[in-house]
Please model this.
Amino acid sequence: MNASSIFQFGNSFIIFGWLLLIIAPNWKHTQSIILNGFILLFSVIYTFLILKDIGDFKADSFSTLANVKALFQNDNAVAAGWFHYLAFDLFVGAYIVRKAKELQISRWWATLALPFTFMFGPMGYLIFFIIKTIKSISNNDTH
Model:
């Protein structure tokens, strides 16, 4: 399987994880499927892609912007980087769902942050942090 096919698989398959978080966030199996299914699978694929071309990796590969750009000239490295993003953004999405439930934040408010987390990672977490902070302030005001 080449890097392009693996990339396409990741883009298509990850949608199911996000739909699970949005449609069934409170289902008892959602967190397990996300953490022990999707993210574990993406971790295995990521590891395969990294180990496949580990010979091209140098200790200073991440030390400068130019070195990082050079590292990502390889299709396997780009695909691996993409799987890194997909896995960690989904992990953050699962965290948002868990934390929202724990803090009794409305499912709808938490869901607002999920598309941003899927598309823009840290921006989605920032939106959730703002929602969480507003919830905390409003809870303190009512006591």
